[in-house]
Specification:
The protein has 296 residues and is α/β, with parallel strands linked by helices. The protein has a single domain, classed as Zn-dependent exopeptidases (Aminopeptidase, 3-Layer(aba) Sandwich). The protein is built from nine helices and eight strands. A six-stranded mixed beta sheet has the order 4-1-5-8-6-7, with helices on both faces. Strands 2-3 form a two-stranded antiparallel sheet. Strand 2 and strand 3 form a beta hairpin. The radius of gyration is 25 Å and the shape is globular. The chain starts with a helix and ends with a helix. The relative contact order is 0.17.
């Protein structure tokens, strides 16, 4: 008897708190009346107008030879606009990497033979998905995303590192970096999350079958050409599940140029001499990379 009474009580509780509100809402919908919503607490909600990934991504200009058979590298300056990226020693990542991207573009054009496009040439906001999509739409042969890191209050951490795409991070630090970079779209607009693990595995496999080897090869070329010229982190070559590197059939590398929380790194990355050194090393690696694949 106690059990039956308890069941009846639970039934009426369910009816009052679950079914009745639905019935009230349905009644308002049927009569076309609007349900008044209390204003209490609305002031605590922050609303932002965020950009959306357009069906027709605006493609940037392609510089260099007019011959479309010449190799094309798309250089991506990370962050931008309302997304400053990392910060430290009075500089912002978005500004540092844009300066490096432009320096590399100018050096490649000076050397000739390679077409170049930048995902952004000014302080604009790009959704993560737009960056590799630009490379796809342009038919790029290589995609290079340039970033700079922050070590918070620890100013002693320094050195560049190079990331390639992998479904499993090469270290805890690489996993944290990927999580932070992929999380940018929570601020910038379109979420890159929500993919099932199976779909994620397929995406990585498709983009890595041939481009994995090419990406790793290009990463090694950067290390080789930078010998004695650029300072690298002890763990220089890393891999992680980075959304910006998901460009199927396009070898893609993310170059973490250094730590702007380190005074020496910040000086190197913002000085004309430092930018020229970076551009020289990276342009040489790109030239050698394209020379190698053309011989295959």
């Amino acid at each position: 008897m106690v059990t039956m009474a308890l069941s009846k009580h639970l039934f009426w509780i369910f009816l009052v708190f679950a079914v009745l509100p639905l019935a009230v809402l349905a009644g308002y919908a049927a009569t076309g009346q609007k349900l008044a919503v209390p204003t209490m607490g609305r002031g605590y909600v922050v609303q932002l107008t965020l950009p959306e990934l357009e069906e027709q991504v605006v493609l940037p200009d392609v510089f260099g030879p007019q011959d479309a058979s010449r190799p094309l590298v798309v250089i991506d300056a990370g962050h931008g606009g309302r997304d400053p990226g990392a910060s430290g020693t009075g500089v912002k990542e978005k500004d540092v990497v844009l300066g490096l991207a432009k320096a590399l573009r100018d050096e490649l054009l000076r050397q000739g033979g390679i077409r170049v496009a930048l995902t952004r040439e000014d302080d604009r906001l790009l959704v993560l998905a737009e960056r590799p999509e630009i490379a796809r739409r342009l038919g790029a042969d290589l995609f290079l995303s340039i970033h700079a890191d922050s070590a918070g209050e620890i100013s002693s951490v320094s050195g560049a590192s190079i990331y390639t795409l992998s479904n499993e991070a090469s270290s805890d630090a690489a996993a944290r970096f990927a999580a932070r970079e992929n999380d940018a779209d929570r601020l910038n607009g379109v979420s890159v999350e929500g993919q099932s693990e199976a779909v994620s595995d397929i995406l990585v496999e498709l983009s890595q079958r041939r481009s994995q080897e090419d990406s790793a090869g290009f990463s090694s070329l950067i290390i080789r050409e930078a010998g004695g010229k650029l300072r690298f982190h002890p763990q220089a070559q890393r891999s992680a599940e980075l959304a910006v590197l998901r460009a199927p059939d396009i070898p893609s590398v993310l170059f973490e140029s250094g730590f702007i929380t380190n005074p020496e790194d910040a000086r190197r990355l913002t000085s004309e001499e430092g930018k020229a050194q970076f551009a020289s090393v990276m342009a040489r690696a790109i030239q050698v990379y394209f020379a190698r694949i053309s011989d295959e």
